[in-house]
Amino acid sequence: MTLIHLEDASLVFKVRRRGRVSLKEYLLTGMFRRRGQNYFQVNALDKINLDVGEGERLGIIGANGAGKSTLLKLVAGIYPPTAGKRVVTGQISSLFDITLGFELDANGWENMTYRGYLLGETPRSIRAKMPAIAEFSELGTFLDMPVRYYSAGMMVRLAFSISTAIEPDILIVDEVLSAGDLEFQVKARDRMRGLIASARAVVVVSHDLSSIAQLCDRVVWLDHGRARLVGPTGEVVAAYANDCTAGHQAQAA
User: Fold this and answer.
1) Containing structural domain, residue 124
2) Total domains in the fold of the chain
3) Is the domain of 67 the same as that of 100?
4) Measured between alpha carbons, how far is 133 from 162 in angstroms, rounded to an integer?
5) One domain, residues 13 and 99
6) According to the model, what pLDDT value does residue 19 have?
7) DSSP of 169-234, one letter per residue?
8) pTM of this prediction?
């Protein structure tokens, strides 16, 4: 069964060329400037064709700025495609921007609810999971405090505990998460292994090619928003590594 289907999926961003236009500049030139002239287009993704089926573990690799995280956000539904088609079947849990949806003046318990809603939970389902989230986070009475007073590590602990309490059909992970101190990171890795094992499909972005090789059975190599190569992990990782090596040698020559 196909859980993720992308057909000629493209994503274009409009970016403003410069800052705010002054009143003088508008009066002198604004009324004569064509609409949209002050913007330029960024083709973030270009005609991506991809199917991810039941049981697949898909890796996405590529250089910085290749469009890896953007592709994850398109799959997750954060960015709708500007052209082409995206069809996803099943509940998604996205482990990137994990503090998205947090309200700084609300306490930890309240933020469990807010973040849970963003992950597709209902008031009843997230309420049932809150004791387990609190226990895993190990934040204790800090959960009664507004999260604006949390340290960065405490914030990540809470966000990770909420995001991984969901039992998704599709798990989407952007890079390796560093959640709190060393002891908590051991717990986090164990939970991630459990989530990856139980999810019906996993899509992961990482610069760590050894992790990709261990985890994924198929890989997409993105290059400037295009799928340069899609295939078995060993084949694609080797081609990407060779290309990177050749590029470094060319720069050094």
Assistant:
1) 95-199
2) 2
3) no
4) 6
5) no
6) 58
7) SEEEEES----SSHHHHHHHHHHHHHHHHHSSEEEEE-S-HHHHHHH-SEEEEEETTEEEEEEEHH
8) 0.78
